[in-house]
């Protein structure tokens, strides 16, 4: 059934439309369909960790390829009749069908525009009682010519995810944001040989630089020309003045852009970086609209954290659609 914007349908096509089929969205889908909701997952198939071959730290799946984790999750969902996963489909807009924003999710209705791959794909619209944003982040890396060749291979962004594999190596930490001091301290958990490269952009004041030096962490404020290495394995950071600093791996601090454009017009509250603000259980400020995973404040974390947030918000949605606040 296809809905129009003319009126809010009494029985929408779906109970919940989930935007994003990563660990947050798929975990929410599993728990929602098990609570007998009709669930549509729409996934653009561009996970944040697509650059890496191996994912770590997910209990029972340490070392799993990221695409395999998702495949296993979709296979589990396939055992349930009331869930559909549309891969390589993108949601372009979500609109409220009820004329006035309701106070409670129980009365909410939405129209969701989505399309398959390719410029020629036609947009179709489905209706739903609730929308879960599990659409993750896009990343911008520092503008170094070769950086993409190393990202996910020997250069990573999450120390908790990949620090163990890089332990005790001479490491670079490259970033242009002002949280490099804290990140450098974190990275020093895994190696006593760390050089922080600000690329002439990030600010690390003298007292922070002294605190880092006391731990053996060097700060290099010169602009970077490029990274050197072979087949994804980093061997050095080459500075604009010609000096080459040998390293064997490292971390980079990307800029993060939550993928939330399709929610424009719903008046959702965000933090300074655009992550959706929630009440801590996944409810946004708009009744019937929820968020889980990297797209929600405080921003990027880990696969198992995203999956946990998906499970938690699924329980909250189940309660909200009944109009009750019962705990588990
Ligand atoms: C290089 C790298 C390595 C990492 N390694 C690890 C690791 O080893 N261990 C670990 O725990 N974590 C790791 N992470 C972090 C981990 O990838 C994220 O925390 C996790 O993927 C977040 O899950 P998510 O479901 O919130 O978002 P994602 O997994 O990013 O999934 C979001 C999905 O939403 C889709 N989407 C976005 N917009 C739309 C739209 N409008 N319509 C439809 N679909 C849409 C995207 O295409 C994507 O498939 C790594 C991250 C990176 C960048």
Concise description?
With 328 residues, this protein is an alpha/beta fold.
Characterise the protein shown here:
The protein has helices at residues 23-34, 66-77, 147-150, 159-162, 180-187, 206-214, 303-322, and strands at residues 14-19, 39-43, 83-87, 90-96, 110-115, 124-133, 137-140, 155-156, 171-175, 194-197, 218-220, 224-230, 233-239, 244-246, 249-253, 255-258, 289-291. The relative contact order is 0.19. It is of the alpha/beta class. α5 links the parallel β9 and β10 (194-197). It is elongated, with a radius of gyration of 22 Å. The model is unreliable at 1-5 (pLDDT under 50). 21% of the residues lie in helices and 26% in strands. The chain folds into 2 domains: 14-138 and 255-322, FAD/NAD(P)-binding domain; 142-253, 3-Layer(bba) Sandwich (FAD/NAD(P)-binding domain). The strands form 4 sheets. Strands 1, 2, 3, 4, 5, 6 and 17 form a 7-stranded mixed beta sheet that branches. The chain binds flavin-adenine dinucleotide (FAD). Residues 19-25, 42-49, 51-52, 55-58, 90-91, 134-136, 152, 156-158, 161-162, 259, 262, 293-295, 300-304, 306 line the site of flavin-adenine dinucleotide.
Rg, nearest Å: 22 Å
| Percent helix range | 10-25%
Segments where pLDDT lies below 50 for 5+ residues? Answer: 1-5
Describe the largest sheet. Answer: 7 strands, mixed
Q: State the fourth-level CATH superfamily of the largest domain.
A: FAD/NAD(P)-binding domain
Q: Determine the strand fraction and express it as a percent band.
A: 25-35%
Q: What is the approximate shape?
A: elongated
| Total E-strand runs | 17
């Amino acid at each position: 059934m296809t809905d129009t914007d003319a009126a809010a349908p009494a029985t929408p096509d779906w109970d919940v439309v989930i935007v994003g089929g990563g660990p947050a969205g798929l975990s929410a889908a599993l728990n929602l369909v098990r609570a007998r909701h009709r669930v549509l997952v729409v996934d653009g198939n561009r996970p944040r960790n697509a650059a890496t071959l191996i994912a770590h730290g997910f209990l029972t799946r340490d070392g799993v390829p990221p695409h395999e984790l998702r495949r296993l999750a979709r296979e589990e969902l396939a055992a349930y009749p009331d869930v559909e996963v549309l891969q390589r489909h993108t949601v372009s807009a979500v609109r409220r069908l009820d004329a006035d924003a309701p106070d409670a999710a129980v009365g909410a209705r939405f129209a969701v525009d989505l399309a398959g791959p390719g410029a020629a794909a036609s947009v179709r619209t489905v209706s739903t009682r609730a929308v879960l944003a599990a659409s993750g982040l896009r990343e911008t890396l520092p503008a170094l010519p070769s950086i993409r060749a190393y990202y996910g291979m020997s250069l990573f962004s999450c120390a908790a995810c990949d620090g163990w594999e890089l332990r005790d190596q001479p490491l670079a930490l490259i970033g242009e944001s002002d949280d490099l001091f804290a990140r450098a301290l974190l990275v020093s958990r895994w190696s006593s040989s760390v050089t922080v490269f600000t690329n002439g952009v990030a600010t690390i004041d003298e007292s922070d630089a002294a605190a880092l030096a006391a731990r053996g962490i060097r700060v290099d404020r010169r602009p970077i020309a490029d990274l050197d290495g072979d087949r994804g394995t980093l061997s050095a950071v080459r500075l604009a003045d010609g000096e080459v600093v040998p390293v064997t791996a490292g971390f980079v601090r990307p800029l993060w852009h939550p993928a939330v454009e399709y929610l424009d017009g719903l008046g959702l509250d965000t933090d300074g970086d655009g992550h959706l603000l929630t009440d801590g259980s996944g409810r946004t400020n708009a009744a019937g609209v929820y968020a889980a995973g990297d797209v929600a404040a405080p921003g990027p974390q880990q696969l198992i954290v995203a999956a946990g947030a998906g499970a938690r918000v699924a329980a909250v949605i189940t309660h909200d659609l009944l109009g009750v606040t019962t705990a588990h």
